[in-house]
Amino acid sequence: MTKRIKIIYWIATIWLALGMLSTGLVQLLKAKEGQGGVNMITHLGYPVYLLTLLAVWKVLGVIALLIPKYPLVKEWAYSGFFFLVSGAIFSHLSMGDDMNDILPSLLLMFLTVVSWYSRPATRKMSAFPAAKASFRHSAAARAEKKIREQRVFGANS
C-alpha cells in the first residue's frame, strides 16, 4: 500500500467517523434541527424512537472502524453504514427532497466506499491467519487443490 492510499484511507475514514458520530449525537440527543434530527425523521415518515437505534448503531460503527484488529466487525460496520446511508438517500428521493437534504447522505456514502476500498490489508478479512487457515481446510479449498493437481499430474491421479 502506497503512502498516498494510506492518506486517502485515513482522511476518508476520519471524515466518515466525524459525520456518523455527529449525526449519531444529534439523533441520540433527539435534537429537532440538524441532519438526521427529529424534524427530518418525521418528515421522512419514520417514528422518533428510531433515532435512538440509529444513533447507537452509528456510534458502535465508528468505534469498530477506528479500533485496531477485528476485521469482521469492521466489515459489518461498513455494510451497516452503506445500508443506513443508502436508505437515507432513498428516503429523501422518495419524499422529493432537494439536493440540500440529499447531499450529506451522498457525501457519507462516498466516504464509506472510499474508506472501505482504500483500507490497509491489516484491516481486511484476508489479512488474518485464522481466516486463511479456515479457508485452507474448507471443502472449497480441497476441491480447488484437487483440480490443480489434476492439471499438473493428469486426469489419472
In short:
The chain folds into two domains: 3-120; 124-157, no CATH class.
Give structural notes.
The protein has seven helices and no strands. It has 157 residues and is mainly alpha-helical. α3 packs antiparallel against α4. The chain has two domains: 3-120; 124-157, no CATH class.
Looking at this protein, list some descriptive labels.
mainly alpha, 157 residues, 2 domains, elongated
Distance between the termini: 41 Å
Q: Quick check: average pLDDT?
A: 87
Task: Outline the biggest β-sheet.
Answer: none
Count of beta strands: 0
Low-confidence parts, pLDDT < 50 over ≥5 residues? Answer: none
What structural class should be given to the helix and strand makeup?
A: mainly alpha
- SSE series: HHHHHHH
| Beta-strand fraction estimate | under 5%
Whole-number tally of structural domains: 2
Helix content: over 70%
